[in-house]
Amino acid sequence: MKIYHLNNISDFLLLLLCFLGDIGLASTGVKVKPICIEEERKALVSFKEDLTDPSRRLSSWVGHDCCQWERISCNNCTGHVAKIDLRNTYPHSTADEKWDDMEYEQSCLGGKINSSLLSLKHLYYLDLSWNNFEGIHIPKFFGELKTLRYLNISFAVFAG
Ligand SMILES: *[C@@H]1O[C@H](CO)[C@@H](O)[C@H](O)[C@H]1NC(C)=O
Ligand SMILES: *[C@@H]1O[C@H](CO)[C@@H](O)[C@H](O)[C@H]1NC(C)=O
Ligand SMILES: *[C@@H]1O[C@H](CO)[C@@H](O)[C@H](O)[C@H]1NC(C)=O
Q1: Domain that holds residue 99
Q2: Does the Cβ of 68 fall within 6 Å of ligand 1?
């Protein structure tokens, strides 16, 4: 069973449409794709601008529909950004022969975490693990992300 948090009437209408869409379209195999909400797109752009990204891992973060950007998942019904998965997938084991300090450094995101993330009112998943924030303090505003259920800042060089 899915549990939805309804903040207002428009969310309710979207959910109703989605529900009807599911019944109507499931049998035809048609998938309804969510479209990004403009305010949330702007929040992600601000977030991106404050990050350093030497290997351009966030290069797909352009254009109107942020639900199509890599590492972003939107709720399939409402289009709200639900998940940001920025785990660095560079092979992690320092015992690995292929491990290269320079390459690893290049693959890391860093910089600052913009509090624009607070505009993502339905974000439940945020993974920043294996990046390098060079000892900046864990942002206080993380505590205000009310819908967050999963936060991973392991091996991301945060302090505090
Ligand atoms: C977040 O990004 C916006 C737009 O780029 C900028 O104006 C603002 O100062 C940033 N906020 C913080 C806390 O750095
Ligand atoms: C949206 O639907 C796709 C496939 O139908 C699924 O893989 C994905 O996990 C769903 N996303 C969310 C946030 O529920
Ligand atoms: C957090 O991220 C690390 C590194 O990516 C991973 O090994 C660990 O399993 C994650 N923790 C949880 C609780 O998912």
Answers
A1: 35-152
A2: no
